[in-house]
Amino acid sequence: MYELDHIVHFVDNPEQAIEEMTAQGLHVVKGGHHEQWGTYNALSYFGSQYIEFIGIEDENKFEKAAKMPYTLHETYEKSNRINGIIRLAIRTTTIQQDADMFSAAGLEVYGPEHFSRTRPDGSVVSWQLLHIGHKSQTVPFPFFIQWDKSNEEREQENKERGITGTHSVGNVKLKEIVYLIDRLDYPKYLQLLEGVKAEEHYDEEINANIVTLHLHNIDLKFVCPCGDGPAWDAMLTSEMGINYITFAGAETEKIIEYENGQYVFVK
User: Fold this and answer.
1) What's the rounded Cα separation, in Å, for the pair 166 and 123?
2) Of 122, 140, 160, which residue sits at a domain end?
């Protein structure tokens, strides 16, 4: 079963992200430090899913990490370190089989590799990562994560540590992640994932082909414009990649814009 695990939003300062996003109605807490990558984060949980507001704290370590192909660090570096929602992680329990499948499909595969980070209380959380891609891609693929503990164990730990909490914006949950793409082979590779259902249609109103992938806990919607025109106007930004995130269950409908990231809240 494949699920959204988390969304990566690069920011200048995770501490400031806590302050700013809390003021917008989200429960955001300090995360931890990635010693091997030179980064640190703040986290906002929605059940077992979360947004990771990540920043750089060690330039030398980060520059080394950014040399690794298809990682989120490379993505950020190649974008000239423009902040925003740049990647998402898909949770899996079959990470080695996933690596073999994508390799057989012709993608470049790196991993799985083992990693860990230290929480503020000194405890360690560990996982495996898999990165995929090809040299002609214009939008980075999601990366894949397999945690060393079950969802239930991790959710219980998060409750005990006060990491999860109530969002004053409402009892919200992640509903949809919308991508803007320029080629339909991007979602077709992800359709190889077993059990992931896909719907394709042409939207005449915005003149775009749309592919929606139904993961277990979220929809990924890929909008591919058929030339210039209405499809671009329908997006919150004109940047390729993750365009905006939609949440359901908000008490008041609104759009939060923070460091080039767009979060849409609906009732």
Assistant:
1) 24
2) 160
